[in-house]
Amino acid sequence: MSALQRVTQWNAFTRIWHMFDAKWQNPFHSAKLITKYLKGTYKPFYHPMSDCGDMVVVINSKEIALPGDEWRKRVYFHHTGYPGGASWTLAWELHGKDPTMILRKAVYSSMRGNLQRRHTMQRLLIYPDENVPADILENVTNQIRGYRKVPRTLSSYADESEKYPRIANFPEDYVLR
Q: pTM, whole model, 2 decimals?
């Protein structure tokens, strides 16, 4: 076996660790992107019968952005397995109970047709904020870019406002009506 073939084979079955920041991202668009890395379909030697997917670490799942009225209108189904165990939960309620669950369900449902999706989901690590254990962070070697740019907050413009001249000085107790 030549050195090139050895390296290609090594790359085929090595798990690369990817980081994805879910802040202000639509979980349904993000799920398609994350699925591509979990299954390994972005690799040139991908085959459905081989398990060549990678690990994906998702941070800031607490700050996802659902489009339109999805927070109030989207419903998630759960069944306990017992008679009468069916329940439907609104998205905002589910997100309040577990901030990682909406993104986890979106990724799971985006892998339709994958017979190994329960096994593949074990390679997905979702954290509600940026606090990731150090032993996981030392494995991460790649960043997955999101579809949406994160907008700047109003407080980040405070430093730039000093550059422009002030038109009027309002008193401290002044309120606009």
A: 0.82
